[in-house]
Amino acid sequence: MQGFVNIRIDDRLIHGQVATRWATGLRVNRIMVIDDAVANDDVQKSVLRMAAPAGIATSIITEEKAIHNIQAGKYAKQRVLLVVRRPKVLLDLVNAGLDITKINIGNMSNREDTVQVKKSVSLTAEERADIEALIAAGVEVTAQMVPDDAEVPMTKYLK
To answer: Which stretches make up the PTS EIIB type-4 domain (predicted)?
Structure first.
């Protein structure tokens, strides 16, 4: 996908680590959040926008709008960090024909009905299946909390 420098799953969406380590380290000019619930909640959108570093634009949009905008090449000349809460969103984008080649999983908190597969990643059975489907589709899926950490293939944790 032209213009996208990193695609990350992080259930905290825009927060200190994403804002300071990832966004500035990757020299992005836009942080995109694809989340239908947040995109339709003005309070949550405002909170996320306040967490973004000054000078970095934010797009907090629905899956449908994201697919349309990306297919139209709206972000081709930008440096975009894409953040989603769950792997299903990215699987939907792949199934819509978007060319996603690599995904980084940062943090997926421990929740009800999850199994911890690594320190910062806990998955439901559905999330695990979605990640496996992304890998089967040829997407490289890695785990990496911060840019200084080594990228580790998620297959290591899905055994």
So the answer is: 1-159
